[in-house]
Write a structure and sequence with these properties.
The complex is a heterodimer of chains A (110) and B (135).
Chain A (H helix, E strand, L loop, with lengths): L2 E3 L2 E3 L15 H10 L6 H17 L5 H12 L6 H7 L4 H8 L10
Chain B lengths: L5 E6 L8 H14 L3 E6 L35 E5 H6 L11 E4 L5 E4 L1 E4 L1 H9 L3 E4 L1
Parallel strand pairs in B: 1-2, 1-7, 2-3, 3-6
Antiparallel strand pairs in B: 4-5
The chains are: A mainly alpha (110), B alpha/beta (135).
Amino acid sequence: MPLEVNGTTYETDEEGYLANLSDWSPEIAGALALADDSELADGHWEVINFLREYYEEYQIAPAVRVLTKAIGKRLGKDKGNSKYLYELFPYGPAKQACKYAGLPKPTGCV
Amino acid sequence: MAEIKSFVYINRKAPHGTIYALESLEVVLIGAAFDQQVKLIFMDDGVYQLTKNQDPEGIGMKNFSKTYAALGDYDITEIYIDQESLEQRGLSIDDLQELVYEDEDDDWKEKSSMRLVSREQLASVIDSADVLLNF
């Protein structure tokens, strides 16, 4: 189903992930979240921005275990744990956050 | 608890032209995400997979050589490079990107994952595998 933001239509796959990485903008992230009935707060943005930087550097979306460890290192132990990340992204931190970040689904994501 | 097995992946082909290198990398990342012990070997034309400054844009391919740098995050800390294969191609270890990991047991100190080895040493790595995958 295509996603419409500010009058422009963007292509997505059958699970709602953006088809073209380069289409992404913060407004699109907000619209993708809204489609899941969630709203993005600072905590979400920290993870989304981290994922976009990680993808830029390594060309992959990290597995959830790698994400959790890296978030802990960068943002502190209180955020680098499954409980915190699942509270932010109840559909699975890697899967859901990657979607809002405009990245493909992580490799090996179950 | 499930037994942790030792997986050894042998990478023998040039990065592009066939799908082997990229497929191997994806399987490696999936395997590592499931807490298996993983070792990688790069030999024959596979040593080209790790060369620095790759730019495959001209052939319409994603530059997945950047992804090798993430292997350390996936706790892959043993990457074996066949010295003879490098020499046959006029390459040295300096032509390859340096892959590192952070040692959790040593105050997250950054350490090299790269091990330049002889054919005899490779044989013993291969011998140590519970599961051997050849790409």
